[in-house]
Write a structure and sequence with these properties.
It contains 6 helices and 7 strands; from the N terminus they run βαββαβαββαβαα. By secondary structure, it is of the alpha/beta class. It has a 7-stranded mixed β-sheet, sandwiched between helices. Helix 1 packs across helix 3.
Length: 183
Amino acid sequence: MSFTIVIPVKGTDAAKSRLHATRELARAIAQDTVEVALIVAPVIVVTAASAHDFPGASVIADPGTGLDGAIAAGLAAVDGPVAVLLGDLPALQPEELADALRRASLLDRSFVPDADGTGTTLIASTTDHAPAFGGGSAERHRAAGYVEIEVGAESGLRRDVDTREQLEALRGRLGVRTRAQLP
């Protein structure tokens, strides 16, 4: 079963504000994530950034109504199985994502929690979605019928970056664009 991957990317100066990232660093993190996802499946990026920032992906304009609105816009553009992947996974590897989507294809709804186990980095559905991203989203996704896909704690699929410490912990595993933006 083939998934289409929807990736919401803020694409504004406020992107990755908790990380205290420059616009260039935030864009590099998103570009590294999108590049890996494109190896695995078709990708739709929902963003306020330029479509030129994400070659190979279909780009939809962010409606400007927050993360939920961006995800809804991406989901509306897909007919068939769809996964929503957060755009801040700069250590993601294609085989990690491909394995998770293979396992997701066996379930109606599935998700991957972040490294802390409280947030969510990926949801996938072969039927319909009930996205519930934000703080404590792992529990909300469970309650909505998403089944957790077991992924190793060190997998790049679980390692979203919201703080400088999280980014530094991944330094040796980061995508090429992200590495180029670090001192």
